[in-house]
Specification:
By secondary structure, the protein is mostly beta strands. It is 7% helix and 34% strand.
């Protein structure tokens, strides 16, 4: 048994021992429904809509699929052949056109990013980036230019960060490292009223860009490979 597995087992056992003995038995787990989406599956589905979700969005094998709570397919959109192992950029949701409804953001390994209508799967726009996207990551979205509509921020295999405007055109591209940045997180980390883009790199840096793609800071973290992480931003020290 690996040490990490043993550690989790001991933690689980310790928590189990602290449970009150009068706890109600929940019974054995059971499978509610199953659905085959493709020959390979290595992604994180996203609930839709973000408030009071009633379905799941999947992106795998060149397709984007929305499935309701009973396992019924609402739509399945073919985004064309995909390079690699049939895995896609993980999906996310954001209101990119300012209509008050969230759209689906998905992408293929070969550098295409799409915005889709979440009701019927219609493609609103597609954007071809100059290089490949990476698996195990997803886009983040925020209003970077103050026009009231969200821009989409993605990272690519060879160190680029791109902001895509609400019509699918590239707003800017920025490169600070040569290989495998993490998924981006957008937040106002310095409380100046403007969003920053935060991401890690395989070369052990944590990087923050401003809304125009310029470097704000880069922090070297020697022990840590940060290329397959997702930064989490929170005010832990209560300094605002």
């Amino acid at each position: 048994m690996r040490f990490s597995n043993l550690l989790w087992f001991l933690i689980f056992a310790a928590l189990w021992m602290t449970l009150p003995r009068e706890s109600v038995a929940l019974g054995d787990p059971s499978i509610v429904w199953t659905l085959e989406l493709g020959p390979q599956f290595a992604e994180c589905p996203v609930p839709y809509p973000s408030e009071s979700p009633n379905s799941l969005i999947f992106a795998t094998g060149g397709h984007v699929t929305r499935v309701d709570g009973s396992g019924k397919v609402i739509f399945k959109v073919d985004l064309g052949p995909e390079e690699g192992r049939g895995m896609m950029f993980w999906p996310s949701i954001a209101d990119v056109d300012g209509d008050g409804m969230e759209e689906i953001i998905a992408g293929r390994n070969d550098g295409f990013v799409y915005a889709l209508n979440a009701d019927d799967g219609d493609i609103l726009w597609e954007c071809q980036l100059p290089e490949r996207l990476t698996n195990y990551e997803w886009a983040d979205s925020a209003d970077l230019d103050g026009d009231g509509r969200a821009e989409v921020v993605v990272t690519t295999m060879y160190g680029w960060v791109y902001a895509i405007d609400d019509d699918g055109t590239i707003l800017w591209g920025s490169k600070m490292e040569d290989y495998r940045p993490s998924a981006p997180t957008i937040a106002d980390i310095d409380s100046d009223g403007e969003p920053e883009i935060v991401y890690g790199t395989a070369t052990r840096y944590m990087i923050a860009l401003n809304a125009q793609g310029d470097l704000e800071w880069a922090s070297f973290q020697p022990p840590h490979h940060l290329g397959r992480t997702v930064p989490l931003v929170a005010d832990l020290d209560k300094d605002g």
